[in-house]
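Would you mind writing out a protein's amino acid sequence and the numbers that encode its backbone to help me picture the idea?
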Amino acid sequence: MTLLAHDRYCDAIELEVRRLRDVVTSGADLSATVPTCPDWSLERLVRHTGGALRWVELIVRTKAQENIEDEQVPLLEGPPAAEGDPAALDAWLAETGEMLVAALREAGPDTKVWAWAGDLSSGFWARRMTHELVIHRADATLAAGLPYEVAPDVAADAIDEWLGIIEFVQRTRPHDGAAAELRGTGRSIHLHATDTPPELNAEWVVELTEEGVSWRRDHEKATVALRGPLTDVLLAFYRRLPLDDGRLEVLGERELLDFWLERATFG
């Protein structure tokens, strides 16, 4: 597994923010419920995402060495006067993206800052916010009934990152219920993208071992396999697309894949 370059993450953030803005200005109903995040309206989803970007911008720009408390995040989620106004929300989101990318580019990948997953660097946040945007833009796009696409290298890295987060949680929170349940002997999951060039190596083997989850990019037989276009595999693995979608194929013991998708989520 190889991380993308820092500039690639910054470029991806710029693109993802622009595409999220396209959803905001598409004429979609901002008050509509987001099916994949049913507690949120489309506008609430956008404000949450923008607030997270501004929170990270503050961490990186100030080189914060301690967590900026989560209760400050709502203060970053956009001006109340913009509520229900697509143009105002779009302008706020554009400014948000510019601020974050400027901070990340100035910091580079190696500036030491607070982070929650062991990698105390600005590079961690460039990667994390790329994939925060990738998934929440999917939420917004699907809610608006618009087509969704994402660059293959970014989609593959989003799967890598999620599996790395699962590993991190198991190491640091071994008694977490979900972390404990994702252990076992002899069970494995194979993710197989069917529409990517061989050099991307967009296949994963995830093993549930007694020590915890382990994974690698590889092609081999597993207890269950999920096959389909890379974007659809990504969305299914993040529980944004049902396994029964006609673009996906499940081979083997589907119960294990259902078990994983139910438990591989941490609050």
